[in-house]
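User: Predict the complex with 4-methylsulfanyl-2-ureido-butyric acid.
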Amino acid sequence: MVKLVVGGAQMGPLQKADGREVAVSRMIDLMRQAASKGVELLVYPELALTTFFPRWYMENQREVDTWFEREMPGPQTAPLFETARELGIAITFGYAELTPDGQHFNTSILTNRKGEIVGKYRKIHLPGHDEFDTERAFQHLEKRYFQPGDLGFPVWRNEGVVMGMAICNDRRWPETYRCMGLQGVELVTLGYNTPSVNSQMSAEGLEQRLFHSELSVQAGAYQNATFVAAIAKAGMEDGHPLMGGSIIVDPNGFIVAKAETEDDELIHAACDFEICDFGKSTIFDFARHRRIEHYGRITSQAGAVVEV
Ligand code: CDT
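Assistant: Here is the predicted structure with 4-methylsulfanyl-2-ureido-butyric acid placed in the model:
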């Protein structure tokens, strides 16, 4: 059975003025730290190459497109792949993808330990709104800048492990994990940018946000008998705070590694994928216990319908 040392490269803030080279250089530093700890797969945050730009309202499409990557790897991201190859570390990170036919996605890719891309995922659950909202203390314009992902929730056997990806808000939806659980997933990797305490929010507000993040990830891991690595971009980006709290969770739902700062920080855990088997063959033996004849509403209806 396969064992892998899984690392989480939590990133501190990236400012609006920071170029891709700032992010890439910090990502490489984290990768070298990870190599020194024996990490074999390293997980970076959502939109790891830039500030969380969906907080900024933009009308000019040319300006919007400056935040997107037209190729992966491209000239600025190639050093990430070269270093990963040199160190023999598989990596996964998020970025904004602009396709040759002009589509915009919030994307993540997964490589093997040879630095070859083995998988791509495009974020399905896009939070926020698509027009400037005068009522909000800060904007969250993912629905303006991205199309919903069109690749579903695929999994890949990578380095001997069945792996899948999700991005940020996806982690709050049980459907995300179950779609991958039904394909035997053993490790879900996901990055996030989650707004944190601001003038409208108390310290209890932050505690609640961290709790909801952990609750979602731990439940997803347990209910699908899979490891989950959920890794943040954190700290103050141009006056806008993002929460940290990156975690690696085992198939029993226990947190096995957790970040303590809101800065660049490496966490890691030695993961023995054999422990996925217990849940998958007992309480969450889907083939024996799921009652799909009662689950029709999940795919036929999006919103709640109150008929009583
Ligand atoms: N990036 C991302 O998906 N963030 C959301 C924030 C939702 S608040 C509008 C999240 O679920 O963490």
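Residues 46, 127-128, 140, 168-169, 172, 192-195 surround 4-methylsulfanyl-2-ureido-butyric acid (CB under 6 Å).
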